Amino acid sequence: MRAPRSWDRGDLCLFLASLARRGAALTFLVESPATEPHTAYPETNMVAAVALELWCGMRRLGLEVWGFVEAYRGRFFAPHAIVVGLEPGWRGPPDWLLAPQPVAIDVIRAGGVRYVVATHPPVGRMDDFAEYGDRLALWALALARAGRREEAASVLARLEGMLDGHGVADKAYASRGLYESYKLALCAIAARAAGVGGLAERCARLLKLVSPPATLYARGMRGVGDLNVETASLALLALHEPAATPPTSRRGPRAL
Fold first, then answer.
1. Residue 1, pLDDT score
2. Residue 219 CA to its chain's centroid (Å)
3. How confident is the model at residue 248, as a pLDDT?
4. Is the N or the C terminus of the chain less surrounded, counting Cβ atoms within 10 Å?
């Protein structure tokens, strides 16, 4: 597996492609090189499939991965589906509480290796969802997609208040002491959709400073651990323009 050297399109695309595994019937991406090398999540493969096809120009691989996602339709919760213009399966504020540990839904063998297909299903509701930057970004994106830009901008103002010059210092940061790169990517995507260009640029600029690219990072922008499928895919959508136009007859991102 190839660790990306930067947040450049080419590095991120090659990284995602390096995570592909081909079973007898399905092609999928494992979530990360070190942390979860034997686990594949349909929900993050969903975003990766679109990123591979439309942002990386890897149409065949993107469609193969999409076939993996379709094989488990109805068996997983995809909160980030709205990012690529699909129905996310949730209404109103994003206050779902996800299972802390992945739940296995299948096992696939590829190249003689056993891989677990897993998901994090909703298990309840959160009263404090507005204290998490990713939830605010998704809420703002949903409002923007619905044409409610003023409300989206209001939600994004709360998210902007969490930025401390290094990243999104939300409740998760307070408990862990590490920032999460994907929250900056979601911030940039949501702010762009809502027409809040200054915030989109600020979040994108911070994301590009994280080195080496990683899902978690410390103050000083030093990446900690490895990069995963979710973060790499969202970073592609946040930092780069699509390399291809989706067919109008099929699923695809809307005005990212």
1. 65
2. 22
3. 45
4. N
- CA-CA-CA-CA torsion sign (150, 151, 152, 156): positive
Question: Six-digit token pair at 67?
Answer: 């076939």
Number of structural domains, the chain?
1
**Neighbouring residues of 143: CB distance < 8 A, sequence distance ≥ 6:** 149, 151, 152, 155, 194
**Rounded to an integer, what distance in angstroms lies between the CA atom of residue 45 and that of residue 140?**
23
Structural domain harbouring 83: 9-239
Inter-helix orientation angle 229-239/197-209, to 10°: 130
166 burial class (0-12, 13-18, 19+ CB within 10 angstroms)? middle
Cα 26 to Cα 111: distance, rounded to the nearest angstrom: 12
249 located within any domain: no
Assigned token pair, 90: 């949730």
